[in-house]
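Researcher: Excuse me, tokens okay?
***
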Amino acid sequence: MVIRYLFLIMATLAFGQAFSQELTEKDIRNMVEKESEQKLVVQCSVLTQEGFSYYAEIIADKLLAFQPNSANYNYRKGFLMLDSHTDFEGAMPYLKLAAKDVKKNFDVYSPKEKSAPTDAYYYLARCYHLNEQIPEAVEYYNKFITASDQGSELIPTVKLKLQQCEVAYREMSNPKDALVENVGKVINSERPEFNPVVSLDGSALYFTSKRAWEDNSTDKCRDKRFNQYTEDIYVSYVHFDGSWIDPFRLDFCDGARNEAIMAVSADERRIYVFQDTAGNGDIYYSDFTTNRFQEIQFLNDKRINTDNWEPHCYLTTDGQNLYFTSDRPGGFGGRDIYRVVRLPDGSWSEPINLGPSVNTPYDEDAPFVAIDNKTLYYSSNGPLSMGDFDVFVTRRDENNNWSAPINMGYPLNSTGDDIYYTTTVDGLRGFLTSLRKGGEGEKDIYEIKNSTQTLNNVAVLKGQIKTVDNQPIPEDVAITVNCISCKDKNSRTVFPRLRDEVYFSQMEPCEEYELVYTFDGGKREIYREKLKTGCDDKYYEIFRDITLDIKSINNGGNTVVADSKDPTKPIIDPIKPIKPIKPIDAVTNIDPITKTDWSNPRYKHYFEYNGNKINPKKGDFKRFVKEIEKQMKEGRKVIAINVYSSASTVPTKTYETNEKLSALRAENIKYDIMTYFQSNTRFNEKIVVTIKGSTVSGPAYQKDAQNRKKYRAYQYVEVITE
């Protein structure tokens, strides 16, 4: 009998992998109904050894039906729940029971084995650690060290985990002022979601998901080892009420292969994609043309993609630096972060390892660089982490040296994996992948709202290329940003996003710039102006909107460039082919005067939730500007127009803060007023528009956003003349 049993074990081990590969879930479920407990123990052990955790867990459930209180069987169940889908909350009760009966000489293949191995202490400690129960985790990590063979390959891991527990205790005792929220079931499913990439203004969220396709066509593509679907890339956009719309899958995704998002260019015209086709995952890309992302292309640069793993990358906002992760030889250990610089011919430089300040003997991954090109966020799983990967921040000085990394702290970081951190342009909203208690399904995507500004000494140019009749803009409309006063005079060309014509560019503080707007491959100029960025050390934004007459462009109209000595005026002949609008703050300074012999028209508009624009061609606004125009015709010399705005206390996600929403309402109405009077050159120099107040007001928010009557009175813009 013993000989027969040993033969069964040896034969199963010899052919286990090939046999497992051929098995189906139906086969496994038939097996558990027919086979004896003895044979199921052997099969469960073989499948576990071969990494088929999902199949092994089905058998473990059957074994528990035979003996619910078996430490052996409870250990199997708890271990497999951790291994297959990292369900530490669900695994904990099984491992608690297993830890009550532990021995060193555990026989994994014997059906007579009732005890659990000493590894049960380790995996129970992992559950406590992931559940943020640090004292209990420390207790069972130490129990494992005491009870196990000191030659165990888990000993170094446990010693690292004990160091991480010390960090976790310290960080959790001194939490940072940040709000961490699960983005919810619209984005997160019961399957893993990860690699969030947020657009610079927070209006789009790209991410990777292992969810099933709607038509169930990917069922046949599920991984037998863990019962997981393949990775696909999705994108969601912000709804008018600040919520996320249902995400949609990018066209190039193939249900039979894995595609994971890495990074998105600032203009969202190129995305970088991870794909593994040869067992050494590489960087690919896809370009957005003809209203869709095209089939992915291999990034054919042997300095970047090698025979080793390159699992992640990030392209800086200016497009001049590519940071990526690689486990190639010559690093500091595990995965390291490298940087390549774009050369004048468009190629990339030799990779530069970021050095020992960033890279360690452990794994560093998921680099993200803020718009200042100096602040680097990344994740590391070394002894300075709270457990598994944590997000760290470091800053580069003028000599390209990186500062000592700082753990971003609790609650941004947890005791599980926290990785793929990305932020909006101002750093106030961040997104990351996290494995923490209370999630929707294994890894989830979370949003982080910081209470303090993380960036300083940087200016950001933001704008939108609009059209008078909402027609699509030419795809080659570009903005050249020339730094005139910079020590190393530099020039960069940025493009607006094709989905909404919005554009961004980083700028240096206290420098003079020239902005040149063109299309037709740079041959036809739309608008040109000079400006100087502020000299304080704060983060601030510069807004520039341009309006085009597309019909005239399509009819072959020409643009005539003219000289002007007044930097507040557009350097362009305002003829019909392309009609630029002055930036909202570009107005000649005129001292306002007060007169009592003229009536002072007023205008007030109440917005719906997150609304910030009016229809300037209708209603009371039209009557308001017509009255001002009438007074000008009758002899009024100068009129001062004061703008006041408010946002209610109902939280807004779309515009980052209610203060910014209120300010946007004021800027938009100012823009509408100036646009109206710019159409009549007789009056445009007689109007002074000033934003006098931009506030957040109203009753305290009590999670009753649907109470329109309560909050609408505090969502307004008011214009008063004097």
